[in-house]
Amino acid sequence: MIYVGVDDTDAPGVPGTNKLARRILPRLRACGPTFGITRHQLLVDPRIRYTSKNSSAAIMLRNGAARPADGIAQALRRALAAGCAEGSDPAFCVAEEVAAEVTAFGRRAQSEVLNAGEALALAVRCGLLLESVAGDGSGVVGALAAVGLAAAGDDGRFVQLGDWPDDLSGRQPARLLRRRGVDAFIQEGVRHP
Questions:
Q1: Angle between helices 100-109 and 139-152 (to 10 degrees)
Q2: With 0-12 CB in 10 A as exposed, 13-18 as middle and 19+ as buried, what is 81?
Q3: pLDDT the model gives residue 27
Q4: Cβ atoms within 10 A of the Cβ of 182, count?
Q5: How sure is the predictor about 193, in pLDDT bands with cuts at 50, 70 and 90?
Q6: Which terminus in the chain has less CB density within 10 A, N or C?
Q7: Which residues pair with 7 in a beta bridge?
Q8: pLDDT value of position 192
Q9: pLDDT 10s digits, 146-187
Q10: pLDDT at residue 190 above 60?
């Protein structure tokens, strides 16, 4: 799996990070088939600048390209520069292998105030591509956290699953999701094949 974390792309009155991730996705399809996009809730605290809810997004692609990080990084730089709100601090992270340290960082971002320097140092230690596209660089915290939380597989909610049309909302019956290719469900800590 290729994990792409995106954060801090919006401003008051403009579409949020999850919507931007969905708009970016077509530019990344050459790098691998879509698994989905998840939203991850981070700490809401007055010491953290955020627009409305302080969530970040993770785009997950199935491995498909020989050198995915290069193509993804180029596509993300262009898409974020063109699609981010003025005054935002957009950043992205790309990873194929996600260390437990990165997941732990993501969990900490849900309960602690973290800083960009810590995120960048962790990304270097773990060999991840973590880059600020504009602004003050603070978006790297949420971008790295999104990758760690998505890789854990037990956090967030899907805002898009595969290449499905945008016709589902709210709770859906398992039989409908099975018809669309979902083969397992987790509910209240119990896995349902």
A1: 120
A2: exposed
A3: 82
A4: 14
A5: very low
A6: C
A7: 91
A8: 41
A9: 999 999 999 998 888 777 656 566 677 777 777 776 665 555
A10: no
Rounded to 5 degrees, what angle do the CA atoms 98, 135, 106 make? 25
Q: Can you say how many angstroms the Cα of residue 1 is from the centroid of all Cα atoms in its chain?
A: 13
Helix residue ranges, H only, the chain: 17-28, 68-83, 100-109, 116-126, 139-152, 174-179
CA distance 123 to 156: 21
DSSP-derived letter for residue 138 is T
Please tell me what DSSP assigns to residue 85.
P
Indicate whether 20 pLDDT > 50: yes
The stretches of 99-138 forming alpha helices (DSSP H) are: 100-109, 116-126
Lookup result for tokens 């998505």: 150
Report how far residue 150's alpha carbon sits from residue 90's, in angstroms, rounded to the nearest whole number.
19
List, for residues 52-109, the tens digit of each pLDDT value: 788 999 999 887 655 556 678 888 888 888 877 777 788 999 999 999 999 999 999 9
Per-residue pLDDT at 191 = 46
CB 129 within 8 A of CB 93: yes
Contact present, 44 and 84 (Cβ < 8 Å): no
Please give the structure tokens belonging to residue 82: 């063109």
Q: What structural domains does the chain harbor?
A: 2-166 (3.30.70.2200)
Rounded to 5 degrees, what angle do the CA atoms 84, 88, 12 make? Answer: 90
Residues in a beta bridge with 191: 186
What tokens appear for 119 in the block?
């995120």
